Structure formats: structure tokens, C-alpha cells
Amino acid sequence: MLIYTLLPFSIKNTETLIYNYIKFFKLLLLNKLFILIPNSIKFNKGFINFYIKKIKFNTNNIDLKYISYKSFLNPFYQISLPVKINILNNNKFNFNFKLFKFPKIDLEGNIICNGLKKIFISKIKRDSGLYFSKLKQKNSKISRASIIFNNNLFIIDLNYKNIIISDLVNKIEINFIIFLHYLGITNFDIIKYSKYGTSIFLKNLLKFNLKEYKLFKYQHFNYLHKLKLFSFYFGKISYNYNFISNLETNKILITFKNKWNLDNKFGFQIKNIFIYLYKDLINILDYLIDLKFNKKSIVDIDNFTNKTIETLPDLILNQLSIIIEKRLVFLITNINKLNRYSNIQFINFINNKKFIFNFKEQFNINPLIQYSDQINSLSEIMHKFKWIKSNKLHIQDINLRDIKSSEIGKLCLINTSEGLNSGLIVYLPQNSLIINNEILTPFNSQNNKKIKLLNFKSISSLNQEKKKIILTKNLIRKNKYFSTLNTIILYKNYLEKSNNSNLILFSEKELFSFAENLIPFIFHNDPTRSLMGAKMQMQSLPLIYNQKALISTETEQILSRKNNNIYSLQEGIIVFVSSYKIIVRDLLNREISYYLPNYKFSNQKTLINYIPIVWVGERVNLGQLLANSQELKDNEFSIGTNCFVMYGSYKGYEFEDALIINKQLIENNIFSSLHMDCYEISLGYNLKNFSEIITSKIPKYNKFIKRNLDTFGIIKESSKVLDKDLLCGKIKFYNLTLKQESLGYFLFNLFGYKIRHIKDTSILISLGNYGRVAKIEINSIPQTIKNLNLYLKLKIFIIKQRILEIGDKLCGRHGNKGVISHIANSIDLPYTKDSISPDIITTSLGVPSRMNVGQLYETLFGLSCNYLDKRLLIKNNLNTKLGSNYLKSLLYFYLKELNFYKGISSFNSYNFGKTNFFDGKTGKKIKGSILFGISFYTKLIHMVKDKIHYRTIGPYSIVTQQPIKSRSKQGGQRFGEMEVWALEAFGAAYNLKELFTLKSDNIKGRLNLQEYLLYNFSIKNVILSESFNLIIKELKSLALNIEALILI
Fold it and tell me: 761: helix, coil or strand?
């Protein structure tokens, strides 16, 4: 069942972010301000009134048409509070007191900071509630109950003779039984409502606490103060009625969610939100006694029922109290300036933007607010799916990284970050609902024979533990051990067999995220390769000429619905269509213009382009698609192309998963992609020092370099630029110094020549960034930036077309990635009887070693679909629904159909799936049969043009005296093990010797070489390096006498 036809909002996380922001405006922010801001404040000469009910929200309207990474664009919301100042001399005036600003969020769920889109990564943190544990202190076992709420932590410890409650925030502790007595709970009530009321242990505990009353007599006031502090947090108790009389104080045991969790621990059902407090406290006492005598086990503290979600509004609310306090203190401390300033001057000073707190700086520093991953629409959606489990990354706690049964259906089982943060950075599954900061999972109940389409249910992690979950409908066959058909179920961390019909079913949509559900036959792959395939699809580039995959899942259509496409807002007829605008005339004879946001570049410098899919005269309905992005085709997510793949060898170029590609892929621009660069040119001036102008009359450059410049010295639009072409002719004039002025007067008097100090600062296109100029923007600098001595700014956008090169990466949907090692001519490649040459040749050793059986299924099904002229929509759990051998039988049927009905005889009937090939050079038949088919391949963003880097001799490490590694630290020619293999393959012995000695840790050799180059000293051939000396010393530490004899 395609659940998104019923739940369009469940494509998290954009709607959830917008909903949380709206809720933040309407409820959370106003409630917080009502608590933090008083109605009035007195000062020496009068008082200040705050009208909180009339609070105002202001915003700035900014056009988001063309922005770049240096833009000053920061849309925001501003909170203004109406204030009335009353002074004793009857001087009264009102003004709007600006409290703070926080960034605006757009309809896509993005935050815009400095002109770039950012995304907030939600955090899974421990929820407020009640937690139990056992520990040892000073050879005694202690049962502990921890109560967490509103940044407060209470601990109740039970040892063999005493029970104590502690407040770790205020660092106070008292006896728990005395605290119960203070709340009005007598010993008779404890014995009556406790299940251990008749036990000797509880009676001895109550007797022992009689001694505490002696301390209470001597320390009466101190003890009474502590009791009042504790009673404030737990609620005041009316002694006549024994119920909570103050419901507005902070109480952990009254909220519905925590009460539900608490009652599940105690074993009784909740009937009302209003529950007697003393029952909860006595139940905590009973649970501690159960733990002491090992009658109950401790629930995992990292269970998902104990988790909640921290969103972007929570980040703002956590710092709101500090911000409001600073602003109110600032207002009171500067109120005396009313005597010196007028009212308008005072308001301008108080509301100066320098003193207003802006979240912009914090949003730029916070690691949870990241630049949006805009490589393709899948990566952007998955970036919003990304969640973090812990504040501390690189944590070594294995329990936190593991997948628990309570996380099934709440977090993706496969998709996580690779490396040190594996298991700490997770993703949401495809079908997930977020309601009140809690993740709910939709499911199909299996107790009814008929499943109604509009009757779906969702389940929380707490209720999920009480249910029996079916992950698949796989039935165990009848044999001597199983007399009936049984189903494998998951119940309370155990796998069981059951024939009960009262079960819930989780499909792959509830278990995996979008990226995993794009992989066909995922259940036939190793999970690590499926993870790699999901990551690679998020790093794939949109192509100019893309194709729909022959083997499809139902997720491609769902992704197209969440893409930022352009839909019709009214029913009407198309009047005008172009690459930048679509005009629709509606039923009321109104013209509605839709502008396509073309020629924009993403955060990863890929081109964002929209293609119209309607024509003039077409009648469109409300909500019909008008234009889609370049990674969509026929409203379906398709970011790659179908290629003929041969699993074999070709001259050894397929070593280590390398790929050999057909030259026709390059000639037909199959894997070509578009990228965009932006060159920003600023013109400045300073009357005392310099001034800058643009011109085309620069004699330094020849006519060929200046061929595309206009009369003003700026490159023309739509012109093609090559390496080292001139983009803008720019000259900087410096004012003459005193010495230059005297020389200038002398030359002017002699020859009539006026001296000038000129510097050429023209902008040339960098090496390898040739392309075509898409557009040019000329902007005058606004008044706010004129302080930087700038008066004009140019932006030149250049579109580049990247074709395939040796060193680029291609990848399939199953994690089968490889680097292009050789580009072969199509006439030299092997071919079939139908004269079909493979587009890609890859090694066959990478399939069985990585257990990618799904890769073979896609290859063979894709080949049959190509000949039969059809596409297959493959469900990932076909075998589980229709039998364990259904997929295999279906594949055999399609291959047989090719032989009998299509007349294709290139398939071996004795070895299904294999094809006979002929050598492209000799024409002879190749021995044996080779696996040949069609797979869906994509091009990754890791291109060789961006990776190639020329290194000189860089700095050396102080400790090891070897070249520093990493490109960011300007590392030198540091050769590792794999680089040495590459030089050994070419037999470069002298280069290896130089790299290992003179360019490494041979200190004396480096000095000797320097003396030879500078002073023509003789070179000493035998100088030992420091690493060799280290090996000698380590051998000597093993009591081995090593002596080096140098023979001359």
C-alpha cells in the first residue's frame, strides 16, 4: 500500500519544521514571555509597565532571487514589546522595546544565514521521567530512583536501613519518609497502599526513621526549609483532601506522557490525567524494594520510550531567559539617560541593533545547524532526516550505538554515518509521524482479514513493546518439527514463532529511509553494501541526459512529490512557455506568471535548473505539475542512466573494482553534468590611498584574451571562456608618495610626462574552469556596506560542463562503486552476437566477496526489460509474500521468454543469465560465458578535476621530521604504502630513493643536498635516515647487538 497517498505530510521533515515553528509562535514563545517578563518594574524615579498581551512580531521582506556565499542576506523575525515609562514628574511616553531577533524559516524548512540555506539537525535526548538503577557504594548495594524534569534532578536512594531523597541542583538531602509525612502521608497510609505493607523490611524502615525526628527537633528551621523546597517541586498538598492543590508548579508526575510511562512501570492503567500524588511516591518506594530483593529487572535507560526530540524552537527557548534578563537590565540601567536625551534619541539608543541579541552568530557556530546538502533532491531530504543521538560524538558506549527493539520503526535500521560516529548519527524511516516531539509509526493490523485503505493506525514506542511485530510474512514450512504453519515474530527483544493473528506488520517503508528504499532487491544484499549504496545515491550528480530506471521501486514517485517543483495554483490554459517563465490564464481571465528559478547554484556548486513540461494551449488543473527539476523525468526521481554492464576482465584494468567504460558514453554526453561558479568582483575607493576602475584598454593582454570583453571591460553574456581568459579588466590607481611626487615633477618638467602608480588587478578565469557565461549582475553597494570603501560589485556566473574522465567515480544502487581506469574504443571491446558492446566492464570478483546478490538480479531483470520493452516495479519483499522461490522463478520465466518469443539466441539455455562474447580485435569467440545485463549507474560528485592537487616540498613534522600529511595543512610530498606501490609498478627506483631519504626524514642528507645546490659541495651517498636509526634502537632494546659497517 502506498501510504503517502493518504499521508502527504508524513514526508518528514519540512512540514514538521514549519509546524513546530508555527506552534513556537502561537504558543511556546508567548507562554515563555508571559512567565519571564513581569507586568511592571519599579525604579528610582518611577515605574515601567510591560504590555505582554500586545506583543508584536516584525519581519523584513527580502528578495531571494540571486544570492551568493558573500551575501549579507539574513531574513529574521523581530519581537517588540510595548512599554510605558511613568516618571514621577508626570512624564509618560510609550514605545516599542525590541527584545531579540531570530532567523526566519522558509516553506522548505530551511534557515537562511548569510544568504545560504541551513538545516537544523534534530537531537534525540533523554526525556524527563523516572529511571531506576542499582549501584554499589562502600560495600553496600543501593537501589536508586532518579527523577529528571526541567533541568532538575532528584535522587531517591534505598539502602539496607534508610531511604534518602536528594536534590542535586540545590545540593540538599532529607529523609524520604519524613518528606512523605510532611506531605500528609502517614505511616498508616504507607502500610495501607504499599504492597509491602505487612513486610518486616518496611516496618523496620519506618521504625528506623523515628530516629530522624530527633535530628528534626535540633535542626528544625534548617530541615523545614529543605522540606518546603522539595514540596514546591512536587506540589503542595492539602491535608484535608490529600490531593494536589497547586497545579501550576513544575511537577514531573502530572504530565500525561510521563504519567503514562510511570503507570506502565508500576503495572496499572491510567484513567485520568489527575492522579493522587501519594500513590506515585509509595509506588516508587515499592519499586525500590523490588529492586533490592531482585524481584524486578532494570529497564534499559537508553530505551526509546525514554527519549524525546529537541527541535529548533527548543534551542531558542533554552536561551530566552538569559536574553530577556539582559535586555531588561539594559533598559533599567540606561533609564537615567532620559534626562540627557530626548524621547526619540532614547528610543533609538535602546533599540540600537548593536544591543539587540541576534541568533545569527549562534546559528553560524552551532554544529547542529549545517549548510543544506543540495547535491540532489534526495540528499536535501535525507539531510533533513538526519538526527543525532548524543551531544558527545566519538563516544565509546556500544549500548548507545546498538539498535534496540524499541527503535524498530522509529529509526532506520541501516542508514547511519560511517566511521567513528557510526550509530550516533541516524536517519528517520520513510513512514514516520512526529507528533508532540514523539515519533509514531504507521502499521497494518493483521487481526482483520480486510485492510481498509483509510483505516490506518500509528503506534508509539511504549505501546510497541506490548505488541508482537512481524517484519515479514515468511511462513516456516511443515516438517517433523513444525506440524503447523508458523510466523516469525519479534516480541520483547526475542524472536518467537507464533500462529496468533493479533499481530502488527512493519514493511520496509517503516524500517528503512528513502535512500534504502530506492535500492531494489535490498533484502538480497549485505547491509554494509546497502548502506554504501544509500550514501552513494545521496552523492550523485544530476545529469543532462538522465533515464528512468528499468527496475524501479515505488519510492521514486514519492520523492518527486517532495521535490521543489512548480505546480499550478489555478485551473486554466497555458498562454506562454519559455525557459524562465510560464503564464497561465485561469477561468476568471487572469494571467498568473510562474517564474522558473533557473541558473542558480547550490551549496555544492551544482546547477539548479527547472524544465517546463507543458505546452502552449494545454489545459491544466489545480495542482498539476508545470515544471520539474533536472533530476526528475516524467515526475519520477531518476538521477542516473541504464548501462550495459559486463562482469569480466579487460587487459587487467578492472583491478580493485576499477571500471572500463565505452568511449561512446563520452561522445553521447551520457554522464555529463552541469556545474556553476560565481566570480565576485568588487570596486573600491579611498581618497587618501587608491581607487579602482574597470576598462578594456589594458595593453598587457592581447586581442585573443580580450575578445569577449565589451567597451566597459566586462565579459559579455553567453560568451564561451577558456583557460586564462579575461573576465574583467580592472586597474588600481595608487596615490603617489613624497618621493614619487618629487620624481613626477622632475619628469613632467623635462618631458611633459605625468607619472602614475598603477597596478593591474584584472580577473582571469582559473585553470580548468572553462565554460560559458550564464549571466552577469551589476549591483551598486548599499549605504550599509559603503563603510568598506566599495562602490560597485560584479557577479559573473559561469556554467561548466563536466564529461567523464579517467579518475571519476561511477556507482550503482547496490554500493558497487568504482573509479574509471580506462576509456576504450567501442570497436576494441568484446561484443555479443547482436553486436552490442558493453558500456561498463567491471570485475566479477566484487560480487561474491561482498554478497551483492541483488546486483545480479537487477542486471538480469534489466536486460530482459530492455528486450521486452517494459519496466518492472519490484517490491523488495516479493519472496516473503509469494513464496521463497518466487523471484528466482520469475527471473527464469523472463529469460526463457527472451529465447522463445523474441528469437534472441545469445543466452545459454544450460547456464541462465550468461552470454557468449567475441573478441573485438580478433573476432574470435571468447571461451566460456560471461554475465551481461543492464544496471542503473550514477555519477558521483567526487570528480578528479576537484581532487587533483600538485604538491611541492612542504613543511616537516618536528617530532618525526617527515612531511606533514593532509591538504589543509599544506602538506608536502608524503608517500604512503599505496603510493609506493604505484611507483613500484613503473619501476621508478631512483624516485623512490629520493622520496624515502632526501624528501623524508634524512636530516643530514637534506642539509648535504642544500650545500651541494648552493655551494657546490660534494654529495655523500650513504647517510642513514632517522626512521632507520629508530629501528636500530628498537632492536637494541631487544638485547640484539646491531653494528653497521659502511664499505667504501
Answer: coil
Alpha carbons 542 and 536: distance in angstroms, whole number: 13
- The rounded distance, in Å, linking the Cα atoms of 365 and 29 is 23
Domain spans in the chain, listed from the N-terminal domain onward: 4-125+311-371, 126-306, 396-517, 521-527+631-672+803-948, 680-802, 951-1037
Q: How far apart are CA 556 and CA 873, in angstroms?
A: 10
Taking alpha carbons only, the member of 253, 290, 258 closest to residue 275 is: 253
Topology classification of domain 521-527+631-672+803-948: 2.40.270
C-alpha dihedral, 927 to 860 to 868 to 517, nearest 10°: -160
CB 936 within 8 A of CB 863: no
Identity of the amino acid at 44? N
Copy the grid coordinates of residue 755: 607619472
Q: What is the pLDDT of residues 453-467, one digit of tens each?
A: 455 677 887 777 777
Are the C-beta atoms of 383 and 373 separated by less than 8 Å?
A: yes
Q: Specify the pLDDT at position 783.
A: 56
User: In 894-968, which ranges are E strands?
Assistant: 914-915, 930-939
Give yes or no for a contact between 671 and 811, defined as CB atoms under 8 angstroms apart. no
Q: How far apart are CA 938 and CA 686, in angstroms?
A: 52
Q: What is the pLDDT of residues 122-152, one digit of tens each?
A: 888 888 778 888 888 777 788 888 887 767 7
Q: Is 337 helix (H, G, I), strand (E, B) or coil?
A: helix
**Per-residue pLDDT at 9 exceeds 80:** no
* 3-state SS assignment for residue 862: helix
Cα dihedral 568, 573, 579, 581 sign: negative
DSSP state for residue 241 in the 8-state scheme: T
**Distance between the two ends of the chain, CA-based, in angstroms?**
84
Using an 8 Å Cβ cutoff, are 507 and 517 in contact? no
Q: What are phi and psi of 764, to 5 degrees?
A: -105, 150
**Long-range contacts of range 335-340, CB-CB < 8 Å, 24 or more positions apart?**
335/43, 335/45, 335/48, 335/85, 338/85, 338/87, 338/91
171 in the Ramachandran plot: left (φ > 0), alpha (ψ -120 to 50) or beta? left
Q: Which residue has the cell 509474500?
A: 881
| Residue 211 or 632, more confident | 632
Calpha distance 252→255 (Å, rounded): 6
Q: Please, are residues 499 and 487 in contact by the beta-carbon 8 Å criterion?
A: yes
* Amino acid letter, residue 186: T
Evaluate whether the domain defined by 126-306 bears CATH number 3.40.50. Answer: no
User: Which DSSP symbol is given to 406?
Assistant: G
- Residue 866: name the closest of 836, 831, 911, 908 by CA: 836
Q: Are 117 and 294 in contact (CB under 8 A)?
A: no
Three-state SS at 966: coil
Neighbour tally for 796: CB within 10 Å: 23
Report whether 772 contacts 720 (CB < 8 A).
yes
By the 8 A CB rule, do 400 and 302 touch? yes
Q: Are 586 and 570 in contact (CB under 8 A)?
A: yes
Closest CA to 538 of 370, 371, 374, 378: 378
- d(Cα 107, Cα 64) in Å, to the nearest integer? 13
Name beta bridge partners: 547: 640
Q: What phi-psi label fits residue 1037: left (phi over 0), alpha (psi between -120 and 50 degrees) or beta? A: alpha
CATH class of 680-802: mainly beta
Strands 730-734, 757-760: pairing kind: antiparallel
**951-1037: CATH class:** alpha beta
3-class SS of residue 17 = helix
Integer Cα distance of 7 and 403 in angstroms: 27
Taking the C-alpha atoms of residue 1038 and residue 1048, their distance in angstroms, rounded to an integer, is: 30
b/e map 599-632, b = 16+ CB within 10 Å: bbbbbbbbbbbbebbbeeeeebeeeebbbbbbbb
State the cell numbers at 731. Answer: 586597474
Give, to the nearest 10 degrees, the angle between helix 320-333 and helix 29-36: 50
Instruction: Specify whether the CB–CB gap between 469 and 503 falls below 8 A.
Output: yes
Output the pLDDT for position 243. Answer: 35
